[in-house]
Amino acid sequence: MESSAIILRCRNHLWLVAFTLFVVWYLLLYVLDWSSLSPITQNHVSIQSGKFNPVDITKTTNEINGMSPSFNRVKDRRNKHGTAEETTNGEKPIKPWGEIVSKNQETGKSSEKPRLLCSGRYIYVHEIPKKFNDDLIDQCQSLDNWTNMCQYMMNKGLGQQLPRDRIFGNTGFYATHQFSLEVIFHNRMKQYDCLTNDSSAASAIFVPYYAGLDVARYLWGSNVSERDSGSLQIYKWLKEQPEWEFMWGRDHFLVAGRITWDFRRGVDEDSAWGNKLMLLPEAKNMTILTIESSPWNSNNFAIPYPTYFHPSNDREVFQWQNRMRKLKRRYLFSFAGAPRPNIGDSIRSEIMSQCQKSRRKCKLLECRNAGNKCLKPDYLMKLFQSSVFCLQPPGDSFTRRSTFDSIVAGCIPVFFHPASAYVQYLWHLPKNYEKYSVLIPEEGVKGNKLSIEAQLEKIPKAKVAAMKEEVVKLIPKVSYANPRSRLETLEDAFDLTVKGVLERVEKLRVQGRNSNFVGDEEYSWKQSFFGTLGNDEWDHYFKRRSKEKYWGK
User: What residues pair up with 125 in beta bridges, in sequence order?
Assistant: First the structure.
């Protein structure tokens, strides 16, 4: 009995020792701040702290990939104050975002992100001259010939907050302009959790140039010199920065918040449309994000148009999704738009005619100049919320903001051309487009060869229900959260865009300088969507005449 008691006491002591060792290990690993140690200690993997330097990883990756010496990170990259920061061993210290912006300016809450979670995700934001962004906001009254854009620049680019009623519910809806994405994206970037002021630590470099707002001032009644001035000046400025030399701009990205055709003027004639932002040599290296990309070019990527919905937290997203699931939709399909008589192959007239003939099955909202209801969020969202399917034919270009407004309303989009969504928003929409949308060939609608109503009615109810659920799940992915806050467990359109950019830049970094699209850019859409040039399923949609139909040469 006595020996048993001794054994029992020994076991208790062993458990106590084990527990004490565990507590000490936990405190060393997670509680103590090892970042206060000297830079020499931080430049190596630390067993005690479990932290490591992202720059060391980059160097190791570069060595493994056999990257040429000319691709090594330039040593004279500057911090945001213009001084070259170096440690005693010649290396520049990492400054994680928590040291740069210790507290969220809006909430006052700490936003520090552990270094380990930011490895490979650091972004450096260029401090470009204010004439390229802030000054444009100050001149908001002159940004558009017909609209005072000042009302849309408030609330960090979201516009005026919409009333909380039976259409918008109790969530965050704003009267957001379709061309205000540059401002929204820039303000969201200010809240990004892995910013750094050390460009040598960055995986990508963001250029906050408001290219769309800049060119919009000169799209009508101007000469090519006025339209090209901003593009030429920003590229000149970028090339003078040490950051450009590292990858010659291949790690740089910017958001141009209009369609790509506004930046692809091919001739220097005053009568030609747009500027040549995306045709200049520097643009070939950068990643340029637009609300519509060119299927025939590989250096621009489409990201969603801004919608009216800008949630401040996960709860608002879930609340809105549940509301869209429960809605009773009285119309089979609907269309909001106007005919395009000046575009010969446009199918909008046929679509509007079929909708009117479908009587109670279809609801038509005509966009007329006088009292245009399509510019009023409540009319549009009410229409989309009452429809099972929403028709999204091409208009002046392939894509429409209406696509994303309808998705936010839980309405299944119906496309008539693959360039309206499928080959555009590769980072945001499922590759299996049949899960969330319907594709009706535009050639079938032309001449009323196909009945849209018949095509939609033959879809089984179970499949329609599954598609509606898939659309509802897409809502956060095509929405830009309120820049004054952030989502907690959900990824919004901004998050998916940044992820896509970082993956692209890393791929370019591994490939080295010879990383341009290999092959005929005429088929870059096919390589991007199908992953091969062999699939010819959609070739007839993308013949050169299709491009000329919308935007000439």
Answer: 206
